[in-house]
Amino acid sequence: MRRQLASLSVEVGFRAAAAVAVPLLVLFAVGRLDLAAYATFGAFTALYGRNEPYRLRLRSVSVAGVALLVSISLGVIVAVLGEPLWLLTVLLLVVVVAGTFFATAFQLLPAVPLFFVFALLVCAAIPTPAADAWPRIALAAGVAVFSWLLTMSGWLVRRYAGDRAARTGAVLLKKLHRRPGVDTTVLSDGRVWLTAAQNAIGVLVAGGIALAFGLGHAYWAVVSVVAVIPPARAAHSISRSLHRIFGTIGGVVVTALVLVWSPPALVVIAVVVVCQFFAEMLVGRHYGSALLFITPMALAVSHLASPAPLGALVVDRVLETILGAAVGIALVLLARAVERSRGLAD
Asked: How far is CA 197 from CA 30, 96, 192, 221, 326, in A?
C-alpha cells in the first residue's frame, strides 16, 4: 500500500488542491463566484512542474503560467468583442497549434494543450463588459502568481525536512526524478507537425458539427477532441484514446450524480478541490483515469460561474463528448495510417 501511495503524486495533489481552494473560497466569501472560471484557470498554473527539481520546475511553472494567462486574456478579449465566431476560430487555431509546439518544446506535463484551449473557450463564452476585462485578467494573474508561489514553496519544505524523508520513502516528499529539457527541434519534427495538424483539423470539425446541430456550448466537443488526441511523439494508440473517451464520459456521469440534488456552492467548491487533488495525482500515471476527475472539475467550475439546468448540461456534454471523441478517434486512425505509410516509404 505504501508503495502504491508513493507512486502517486500526493504532494502535487495537495498543492494543486490548495491552489484552487483558496481563491474559490475567497470569491465565495465576497459573493463573486461568477468569477470562478478566471480564478480556476489561473490556479491551473499549479498543475505543472510535477516531480521536477526546483531549478527546472521554475522554468516549467513560469512558462505554463504565462501560456495560461495569454489564453485567458485572449478569451476575455473575444468576450468583450461579443464572441465573433471568426475571431474565436482564428485564435482557437493559434492556441491549439502553438500550444502543441509549446508543450512539446518545454516538455510540459500535461503534454497536451488541453488547459490552454479550455481557458480560451470558456473565458470567451462568458459575457464580459469592457470595463470588467482588466479586473478579470488581473484576478487570473493574481491567482497564477499565488499558484506559482505555492508550487515553488516545496523547496522550503524540502529544505526544512532535509533528505531524511526522501531516504525513508516518505509519501508526501516524492523524489524529484523528472528532468525536462528544452527541445529546439520541434519545428523540424514531422511528428509534432502531425499532432498540431490533428488538433487543428479536429477542433474545426468537431466545433463545426456541434454548431451545425445547435448543441449548447460547442466548446466541449472541441475540448474532447484535444483530450483524446495523444501528445506529440506519443504512440497513436486506440486503446489509450478509448481510455480517454470513457474517462471523459464517466466524468460527465459523476457530475450528474453530484449536481442532481442542486448542492450549495460550498459543496460544489469542495467537489472542485477534491477533483483537482485526484486529477493531479493520476494525470502523470494514467490520463484516462485522471479525466474521470478533470471532467467533473471543469463542469463544476462552469456551474459555479453560470448555473444551468442539469438535464441540458448532462445531455449536451455527453453528446459533445461522443462527437469530439469520434472525431479524435478518426484522426488517430488517420495518423496511424500516415505513420505506416512513412514507414513503408522508408
From this structure: 44, 9, 9, 17, 17
CB-side neighbour CA atoms (13 Å) of 314: 14
Per-state percent for the chain, helix, strand, coil, to nearest 5: 75, 0, 25
Residue 158 is part of which domain span?
2-345
**CB under 8 Å to 159, separation ≥6 — which residues?**
none
What is the DSSP annotation of 32-84? -GGGHHHHHHHHGGGGS-TT--HHHHHHHHHHHHHHHHHHHHHHHHHHHTT--
pLDDT digits (tens, 9 = 90+) for 154-169: 777 666 665 555 444 4
Q: What residue has cell string 441540458? A: 312
What is the tens place of the pLDDT at every residue in 123-181?
999 999 999 999 999 999 999 999 999 988 877 766 666 555 544 444 455 677 788 88
How far, in Å, CA of 26 to CA of 269, rounded? 11
Q: Measure the N-to-C terminal CA separation of the chain; round to a whole number of Å.
A: 47
User: In the chain, what is the greatest distance between 2 CA atoms, to the nearest angstrom?
Assistant: 63
The rounded distance, in Å, linking the Cα atoms of 237 and 166 is 35
Quote the percentage of the chain above a pLDDT of 70: 85
Among 277, 264, 276, 273, CA closest to 304: 264
Q: Report how far residue 282's alpha carbon sits from residue 94's, in angstroms, rounded to the nearest whole number.
A: 29
Grid cell of 231 as nine digits: 501528445
Residue 294's pLDDT band, with cuts at 50, 70 and 90, is confident
DSSP, residue by residue, 273-293:
HHHHHHHHHHTTT-HHHHHHH
Please check whether residue 319 is in contact with residue 220, taking contact to mean a CB–CB distance below 8 angstroms.
no
Number of domains in the chain: 1
DSSP output for 167-230: HTT-SSS----------TTGGG-HHHHHHHHHHHHHHHHHHHHHHHTT-SSTHHHHHHHHHHSP
Query: Residue 55 corresponds to which cell in the numbers above?
Result: 531549478
Q: Is 0.85 surpassed by the pTM of this model?
A: yes
Cis peptide preceding 263, ω within 30 of 0: no
